[in-house]
């Protein structure tokens, strides 16, 4: 199956990404139909586990959105399992060195490009001679998160690792790492200068840069800046915002 996010990036387009913290297939089904280009199940900071991730994928499957996962850590077991479940992209937190980026690529790809074990229980027919194993290495997106001062210091070496399709900036942790307030929609000049550097370095290599945002307005601003993947909060945050606004209107 062709990865629509990868196709959009090849065409120079940005994608708008949804984010799932709720471990429920029904909410994932409804949310994924809102027009997102991709929807990511958050297994790091949400309350998702592996079975709820699979359930969310079953909900997302009814929409045209590309299913992705943020895994809890850079570890081969969970990376392989979410790919077997049907993830078309893996976003991995706290990748700080080229060695860690190489490990993520290894975990995400079948031999000879990597060490992923064969057994795509949902993504492809197990043990068959189907096309999944033939195309997975080309279609799966491998996206390390850049969210520390150490990662910024090593960014050129990280970006030069073969098999990296994009990076995903975590603004809160990045700000925290520089001794600043952890927040999403950053206006701090030092952090914005880092964004500019990341966009320049990824642009040189044909690699997409992604960013987590707190608001749709800021996400649009970051698309104009050059980011190719923007996430807007998560479904919990958007639901609470809409509910809070509805209550205020009702009460006058």
UniProtKB/TrEMBL annotation:
A matching Pfam family: HpcH_HpaI
Keywords, ordered alphabetically: Lyase, Metal-binding
Gene Ontology CC entries for this record: cytoplasm
Signal peptide (residue range): none
Domain HpcH/HpaI aldolase/citrate lyase: from-to ranges: 19-240
Keyword match Ribonucleoprotein: no
Gene3D superfamilies reported for this sequence: Phosphoenolpyruvate-binding domains
Family annotation (SUPFAM superfamilies): Phosphoenolpyruvate/pyruvate domain
GO MF entry, a single one: metal ion binding
Keyword Metal-binding: yes
Membership in a protein family: Belongs to the HpcH/HpaI aldolase family.
Name the UniProt record assigns to this protein: 2,4-dihydroxyhept-2-ene-1,7-dioic acid aldolase
Organism annotation: Neoroseomonas marina
